[in-house]
């Protein structure tokens, strides 16, 4: 079988010729996986944020900017602290010097439990006492920012609670009714970063895809698309990352139904077919997008692979610091995503 040229897009872009030319996640058995993943939405009134310029935003309020550094009064409350992503965020925030309040929200079954992370004991509260607890924490820590890494079914209820109490938040949880999520925050006029994809480098890749879709509509008209994405078995929904990238391909003229995404959640398949290192089966994000011309003579493949959760945790801390700065500057815009964070150019 003839080999196929790949255009592989990841946190470091490179060209390679895989042994298996047809929808193979790993072009080489010993290839080191690149760290990445994608998925976020724009505001209610637009499907995706249009990015035509990556120039930095205004630099007014120097005092406020300089004061939003680790250890300068910012506190975070990580909801979903018992999960792997929640724990990763706590570790990253602790390393950055951000204060972590010893309180978190979880399921009714987790109520009363204590989770220890970085030597800190965090008490988990159930749904019944959330509003009272959050109001108390916010009163004690007026520069509180909530970080949400819970479950898709809790997204909208949690956002309504944060909005009711008036607490700014970073929503890293995927799923839920995204339009309703934005509407809730807009009506409450609170500050928030909403981006299921917190991996900065992957967001930059998605921004580049959006630029291409915006400036070259129809460039891939007639091409067929196949998409496979592999995540840990605990991820129940289809990747928002894949959906966002597919949306760009649709703008480029590709006809594709989101229901066609091939979801790989079986550990054996992930190791043998996808090429996920066994030690990362419980935490990874491998994505592959395969385009073929109508006459089958041309193909393109875009691939980005992430092992572990550090890329998302670090991006989340950057989003917290970014949001704290906007709050102190009393910025007119109140709802942001990770492209806004990237534009700022002040990431650690």
TrEMBL record:
Cellular location(s): Plastid, Chloroplast
Q: Name one GO molecular function term.
A: NADPH binding
Organism placement in taxonomy: Eukaryota, Viridiplantae, Streptophyta, Embryophyta, Tracheophyta
What is the role of the protein in this entry?
Answer: Catalyzes the conversion of 4-hydroxy-tetrahydrodipicolinate (HTPA) to tetrahydrodipicolinate.
- Name of the molecule in the record: 4-hydroxy-tetrahydrodipicolinate reductase
Pfam families named among the record's database cross-references: DapB_C, DapB_N
Which pathway does it operate in?
Amino-acid biosynthesis; L-lysine biosynthesis via DAP pathway; (S)-tetrahydrodipicolinate from L-aspartate: step 4/4
Q: What is its EC number?
A: 1.17.1.8
Reaction(s) this enzyme catalyzes, per UniProt:
(S)-2,3,4,5-tetrahydrodipicolinate + NAD(+) + H2O = (2S,4S)-4-hydroxy-2,3,4,5-tetrahydrodipicolinate + NADH + H(+); (S)-2,3,4,5-tetrahydrodipicolinate + NADP(+) + H2O = (2S,4S)-4-hydroxy-2,3,4,5-tetrahydrodipicolinate + NADPH + H(+)
UniProt cross-references to InterPro entries, sorted A to Z: DapB_C (IPR022663), DapB_N (IPR000846), DHDPR_bac (IPR023940), Dihydrodipicolinate_Rdtase_pln (IPR011859), NAD(P)-bd_dom_sf (IPR036291)
Q: Which residues form the Dihydrodipicolinate reductase N-terminal domain?
A: 74-198
* Family, as annotated: Belongs to the DapB family.
Task: Tell me a GO cellular component.
Answer: chloroplast stroma
An example GO BP is:
diaminopimelate biosynthetic process
- Where is the Dihydrodipicolinate reductase C-terminal domain positioned along the sequence? 202-342
Keyword Cell cycle appears in the UniProt entry: no
At the top of the EC hierarchy, this enzyme's class is oxidoreductase
Q: Keywords in UniProt for this one?
A: Amino-acid biosynthesis, Chloroplast, Diaminopimelate biosynthesis, Lysine biosynthesis, NAD, NADP, Oxidoreductase, Plastid, Transit peptide
């Amino acid at each position: 079988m003839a080999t196929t040229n790949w255009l592989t897009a990841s946190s470091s872009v490179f060209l390679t010729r895989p042994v298996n030319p047809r929808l193979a996640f790993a072009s080489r058995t010993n290839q080191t996986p690149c760290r990445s993943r994608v998925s976020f939405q724009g505001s209610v009134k637009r499907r995706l944020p249009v990015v035509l310029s990556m120039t930095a935003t205004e630099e007014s309020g120097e005092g406020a900017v300089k004061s939003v550094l680790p250890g300068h009064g910012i506190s975070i409350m990580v909801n979903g602290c018992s999960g792997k992503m929640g724990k990763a965020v706590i570790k990253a925030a602790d390393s950055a010097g951000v204060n972590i309040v010893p309180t978190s929200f979880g399921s009714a079954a987790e109520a009363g439990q204590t989770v220890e992370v970085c030597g800190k004991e965090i008490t988990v509260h159930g749904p019944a006492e959330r509003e009272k607890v959050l109001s108390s924490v916010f009163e004690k820590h007026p520069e509180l920012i909530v970080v949400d890494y819970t479950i898709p079914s809790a997204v909208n209820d949690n956002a309504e609670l944060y909005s009711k109490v008036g607490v700014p938040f970073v929503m890293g949880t995927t799923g839920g009714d995204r339009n309703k999520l934005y509407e809730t925050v807009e009506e409450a006029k609170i500050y928030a970063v909403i981006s299921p994809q917190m991996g900065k480098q992957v967001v930059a890749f998605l921004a580049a895809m959006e630029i291409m879709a915006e400036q070259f509509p129809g460039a891939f008209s007639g091409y067929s698309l196949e998409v496979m994405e592999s995540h840990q078995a605990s991820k129940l929904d289809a990747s928002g990352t894949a959906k966002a990238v597919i949306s760009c391909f649709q703008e480029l003229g590709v006809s594709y139904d989101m229901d066609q995404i091939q979801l790989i959640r079986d550990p054996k398949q992930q190791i043998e077919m996808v090429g996920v290192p066994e030690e990362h089966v419980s935490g990874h994000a491998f994505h592959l997008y395969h385009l073929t011309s109508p006459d089958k003579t041309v193909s393109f493949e875009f691939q980005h692979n992430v092992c572990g959760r550090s890329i998302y945790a670090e991006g989340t801390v950057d989003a917290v610091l970014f949001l704290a700065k906007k709050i102190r500057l009393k910025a007119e815009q109140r709802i942001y995503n990770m492209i806004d964070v990237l534009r700022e150019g002040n990431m650690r």
